[in-house]
Known about the structure:
The protein is of the alpha/beta class and 293 residues long. The protein has helices at 8-20, 23-30, 34-48, 64-88, 103-110, 114-120, 172-178, 200-206, 223-231, 241-249, 280-291; strands spanning 53-55, 60-62, 95-101, 124-130, 144-149, 156-162, 165-169, 192-195, 218-220, 236-240, 260-262, 266-272. Strands 4-3-5-12-6 form a 5-stranded mixed sheet. The chain starts with 7 loop residues before the first helix and ends with a helix.
Amino acid sequence: MRSPIPALIDLEAFEAAARHGSFVGAAGELHLTSSAVSHRVRSLERQLGVVLFTRHARRIDLTDHGRAYMPSVRQAFDELAISTAGLFGSVRPSRRLTARVPISYAVAFVAPRLNEFTVAHPDVDVRLVSAIWADALAPEDVDLDVRFGSGTWPGHQADLLHSETATAVWAPSYAERVGPVADATVLAAHPRAHVLGMENLWLELFGSVAPPLANGDITVDTSLAAIELALSGSYSALLPSRFVARHLADGRLTSLPGAVVQMTEAHFLVRPSSRTNLSAEATQFADWLRAID
């Protein structure tokens, strides 16, 4: 039975750090943070039961164990590269980007346009991760983190990505059922779909005309669910304008001039306070998101 070998990602971090003589240099090559490289090297050291690097303030040095191990690791990677090229040809190098975004933002706003980014940046391998699985990734494994809220998250720096408005929408079949919607206040007399945490937007739209909840209203926890309820023709909904722009453009939903309110919360680019800069790929993706505002 073959003896187990350490995880490939840990060996990759060790080999790159040894060549560069620093975790920072290895991080740049591997498109990770230096803390992520350090974490992977420590994982390898725990598996082997030895220390591979002596850590200094601005550099790292291989220990005796590290120097003894390095030639074998490098040879293994070289042989793997030669074998891969011989069998499959040269593999195009790819820059990796992991972007974590809220689920409604991902589905309603980013996914329909994502091909535009991949065409403009074919060398960037994009992994779009829903914030529903936020605990599945460590902070150092996320290159770009988009969050919706007030802009304050302890231990993190937040930069405004998009200010938001909300638009009252309904399907054409809704108007056929309840009658002409000449004014947005008509919506107060009929069932509405509320998004959890955004109920106050209706009061801002109606003033004192309608209570936050009325008979027949329904509350859901995502804008995606509210969009589907509006498309069903049984409800109106007050939703972030960018999430319903495509539906309004193709006529699946409709609205009225003035049926829009400014939202106090917005979408932000968030990163741990200890991380000073975004990677080049993350910066390109953030610039693209702003450009399609």
